Amino acid sequence: MSCLPRRRLIIASATAVAAPVWLPAALAQSKNLRPTPRQTEGPFYPVSLPADSDADLLKNGNVVYGKGQPAWIEGTVTDLSGVPVSGAVVEIWQCDHAGHYHHPGDGGRADPAFQGFGQVTVGRDGRYRFRTLKPVPYTGRTPHIHVKVRLDRQELLTTQLYVAGDPGNERDGLWRRMSNEDRAAVTVPFAPGGDALRATFPIVVQA
Question: In DSSP terms, which residues pair with 128 in a beta bridge?
């Protein structure tokens, strides 16, 4: 009966032993991530974008906004495989410290020092960062920040970001209608961090 040369037997044995080590890792890397849940846009997306629409919402032109609690919000935009979505535009908008939006539907009562809207184009690493205000409640809603992600002319996601542990969450209709898993994906802590609070919000889109 013929047999394999010794060298081929050694290679075959080594491959059989190694397979259980690298195969599960490869399968794990191919597993899709769960997309960030969608939420309603709400009535107060800007009618027209402000002249100053950069990543610092606490400085509107040359005017500095000094009310409320400043916060950094940052994260990455990736696709379902965890690959950064280079070129994606992240937009956020929210009310001022008194609960008013820069929008005609809110009566034009927003503090002019608060920019209220910002946008960032992410690079190859998919990272974004905003300096803004920790969101506050207003009648009928728990604190939240609206988030939209675009790529070229395609809108990839519209959602809302919530504050972990806020007592208003349990009374908010939109928040309560989500599953526990969806709530966890869009509800993050605002933790102390030097000059401002800090919140990390990873965004996963179907690009």
Answer: 75
Query: Quick one: which H or E segment has residue 66?
Result: none
What are 157's two structure tokens? Answer: 């996601």
List C-alpha distances in Å: 42 to 31, 147, 174, 188, 206. Answer: 33, 11, 11, 20, 22
Task: Please provide the size of the chain in residues.
Answer: 207
C-beta separation of 198 from 191 below 8 A: yes
Terminal CA-CA length for the chain:
57
Domains and CATH numbers, the chain: 59-204 (2.60.130.10)
Structure tokens at 142: 């728990």
Q: What is the mean pLDDT of residues 10-24?
A: 39
Cα–Cα distance, 136 to 118 (Å, whole number): 17
What's the pLDDT tens digit per position in 50-103?
899 999 999 999 999 999 999 999 999 999 999 999 999 999 999 999 999 999
Q: State the pTM of this model.
A: 0.84
Q: Is 128 left (phi over 0), alpha (psi -120 to 50) or beta?
A: beta
Half-sphere exposure (Cβ direction) of 155: Cα atoms closer than 13 Å: 8
Could you tell me if 41 and 146 are in contact, meaning their C-beta atoms sit under 8 angstroms apart? yes
Bridge partners, residue 73, by sequence: 130, 199
* Dist. CA 41–CA 103, nearest whole Å: 14
Q: Which residues contact 8 (CB under 8 A, 6 or more apart)?
A: none
Q: Which residues pair with 50 in a beta bridge?
A: none
